[in-house]
Design a protein that fits this description.
Blueprint (H helix, E strand, L loop, with lengths): L3 E5 L4 H13 L4 E8 L2 E9 L15 E2 L5 H13 L9 H4 L13 H5 L14 H4 L2 H10 L16 H14 L3 H13 L4 E2 L24 H8 L4 H4 L14 E3 L1 H12 L3 E2 L2 E2 L3 H8 L3 E5 L3 E5 L4 E2 L12 E4 L5 E5 L4 E7 L12 H14 L3
Antiparallel strand pairs: 1-3, 2-3, 2-14, 4-6, 5-6, 7-8, 9-10, 11-12, 12-13, 13-14
Helix pairs in contact: 1-13, 2-7
């Protein structure tokens, strides 16, 4: 099997050893791991393979779909709009998007989207990736949707509507298409190899993905209904969908790119001398917005979209802000320690949350041991 490549500072050698163990044991087939401290990479590793024949090496520029870890880019963009005075999180979304007010949605705010309290954990109908790639169609579905329950009375993680609602808010307040704003304000200035939609001509550097066995039915009927709209993982990894812009869960990149994006928060808003956010909005993002038993993810403490460290939903450090993607990718940022920590891989595990993914548990345990936190 192809080996592990890249760079690891001696202080973080335990992370490299764990990364190698995962590949050697078959827990991962191909993966990337990256850590920055004060904006500089101290870990930038990749290894294993990226094709179903398990022959082609995962290389420095290999990328993979990271599912809901993509949401962190959306959260940062929303914080930018608030920081610039273009968006009030407590103003109804309908102020910016009047058509959204239909069917009792007139009071729903962007803050409620960020903490998953909109009453719209799904679209109210099954959707395909072709549906989701049609921005006008998605806009119409959401404008005409009826809340599943009274908004702000319950927390239920919204796997996809989260992204489509925030993308629309971004477009309405900036006049720029969501993906154009992302490239102009984040990806290009950071030189981050992360994409919402990747041209077909770059398909040869995208890793295959190994799905896991089907998950058991969810305990919550609401969560199960939302998940039932999404189709199968096999649909999501069809090569023909690479160019499709899918805001909530369609980001394509690697750990290096994710960690670079995370530097915006880890650096208290400034990276390489460029100001992306003010420290005040980052402090707000790190403050507890909701501490609740979410219908889909269980007990969680939400900041402005981010998971915040608790025993129920732990991060790698007490001051970390984090989120992860279906099957195991993650990005965690600590503005107190100046750390951005990311993982992206091609082997999906069914137990992909921070409580029980063995890769994440071990990486974060070792990070705490290395840094002497907790």
């Amino acid at each position: 099997m192809p080996g592990v490549h890249g760079f690891c500072d001696e202080r973080f050698r335990l992370l490299e050893e764990a990364f190698r163990r995962n590949l050697d044991s078959g827990l991962d087939k191909g993966a990337s791991l990256a850590v920055t401290v004060d904006g500089k990479y101290v870990v930038d590793l990749w290894g294993g393979t990226r094709d179903y024949e398990m022959i082609t090496p995962w290389e420095a520029d290999t990328v993979v779909r990271v599912f809901s870890t993509s949401k962190i880019a959306l959260m940062i963009m929303v914080l930018m709009l608030v920081d610039r005075g273009l968006l009030d999180l407590d103003e109804p979304i309908a102020t910016y998007w009047p058509e959204f007010a239909q069917h009792g949605k007139g009071a729903i705010t962007t803050r409620q989207v960020l903490i998953h309290r909109t009453g719209l954990p799904g679209y109210g109908r099954p959707v395909t990736l072709d549906d989701l790639g049609d921005r006008d169609g998605v806009r119409s579905i959401l404008a005409n949707a009826r809340p599943w329950y009274e908004p702000d009375t319950m927390s239920c993680y919204a796997p996809l509507t989260f992204g489509d609602l925030l993308a629309e808010v971004i477009e309405r307040t900036t006049g720029v298409p969501f993906n154009g704003f992302f490239r102009r304000e984040l990806a290009d200035p950071l030189d981050a190899d992360f994409h919402f939609g990747l041209p077909n001509e770059e398909a040869d550097r995208v890793s295959a993905i190994w799905p896991h066995d089907p998950a058991p039915p969810h305990d919550s009927p609401i969560a199960q209904a939302a998940l039932s709209e999404l189709g199968t993982v096999e649909d999501w990894i069809e090569p023909r969908h690479l160019p499709t812009v899918l805001p909530a869960a369609g980001g394509i990149g690697n750990a290096r790119a994710l960690a670079r994006i995370g530097c915006v928060l880890a650096g208290n808003g400034t990276v390489d001398g460029r100001r992306y956010l003010g420290p005040e909005i980052i402090a707000d993002a790190r403050s507890t917005q909701s501490r609740t038993e979410d219908e889909m993810v269980g007990w969680v403490r939400y900041g402005l979209g981010f998971g915040l460290d608790t025993d129920d939903y732990p991060g790698p450090t007490p001051d970390s802000m984090h989120w992860g993607g279906y099957g195991g990718s993650f990005l965690a940022m600590d503005p107190v320690a100046g750390v951005s920590f990311a993982f992206a891989q091609n082997q999906l595990l069914r137990d992909g949350g921070p409580r029980d993914d063995p890769r994440r548990i071990e990486f974060w345990r070792l990070f705490r041991e290395i840094t002497g936190t907790r």
